[in-house]
Design a protein that fits this description.
Length: 87
């Protein structure tokens, strides 16, 4: 969207895109946000932005360190990287 691109340019922000209109670029992060919303955000009401930020920080730690994923051979992301990317 040209107007959005102009606003980014005015503020000195470089837009991150590989190709025009390739929605697959965001698939991984969109999947993560979907999981975060269903496992955290939709389950309770938050009394402040700070509370929500703190809980998101804790969730990200849990997601990376403790939450096992079937497509990562039932390992957490950190366990998977440690196992498969050792020198």
């Amino acid at each position: 969207m040209k107007r959005y691109q102009n606003q980014l340019k005015e503020k000195g922000i470089i837009q991150s895109m590989s190709r025009k209109g390739n929605c697959l670029d965001n698939a991984i992060i969109e999947n993560f946000f979907g999981i975060l919303k269903s496992e955290l955000f939709y389950l309770k009401k938050y009394t402040s932005i700070d509370q929500l930020k703190n809980e998101i920080d804790e969730y990200i730690k849990y997601y990376n360190n403790d939450r096992n994923k079937s497509n990562l051979n039932k390992m957490s992301p950190i366990q998977y990287r440690a196992h498969y990317y050792q020198n």
